[in-house]
Structure formats: structure tokens, C-alpha cells
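Q: Give me a backbone?
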Amino acid sequence: MTNQASSEIRYKVIPRTLIFLLNESKVLLIMQNSEDKPGFGKWNGIGGHIEEGEDPYTSARREIFEESGLEIVNIKLDFITIIPEKKDLGVCLFIFSGNCENTKIKESPEGKLSWINIDHLNEYLLMPDLPKLLELILNKSESNCPQIISY
């Protein structure tokens, strides 16, 4: 290995989960209430960082429980994408979905939770990519393999 190769800065990613829980024609969304976090004041799926020692599924289930009080076992990894943040840093996003029969949610310190009718999403201030991601999930084939999406 040359000195030049060893001094190059490698692109790094922060692993995160994003989960869309569905109940009939509604999706569970959260409005971030912390001004120092991305998405402040906008509606998004629930999720967060993957902690050390967690796989994406474990992280997604933990985030669902922490943010909503729901214990969801049957979730599906639909998509994986990398969202650029800085020149040498991005977010590797594992995007899950699941059907939820129990709609009783607890208050979350992360933000306001609400089951929102999918046909009325245009009435809400959403994260810019949310409509596209939700459309992809709702129209996805029943393939067992997650798909890669590009930003």
C-alpha cells in the first residue's frame, strides 16, 4: 500500500432506520420536536440511529417501541439507500414497513405522533422524501429482497 492510498479519507456512513407502520389507509408519523435534529417541525416515519451491537431489524424494533410504545415483530426491510450529508459522510438508511393492528400509541419525548390518512398527506409539512418513499413502499412487489434506491 502506498502512502497516498493510506492517507485518503474514506467515505463513512452513519447507519439509521426509518420505519413506516401502516394501519388500513393510515401511516404512523412523528413530527420531530427538537430544533437541533434534522427534520424539526416536519412529519416523518419513526426511526433513528442503529446502536453499537444492533442489527438493523433490532434497531428498528427498538426505535418503534421507544418512540410509540408499540411492540412490532413483523417488519420488512424494503429499501436501503445512502443519503449524502457531507463530502466524506453520509447516512445509510434502512427503510422498513409493517402492518400494525394496534393503533394505541404512547406520547413520545421525540415528538408528536399521529396516525395520518395517506390520502391527506399533502395537508402536512413532510420531510421532502417522505411521499416518494411511502409511494415506493405501497407499490413494492412482495419480493423478499430489499431494493436499493438512489438519491
The beta strands are 12-23, 26-32, 43-44, 46-49, 76-86, 89-99, 111-117, 147-148.
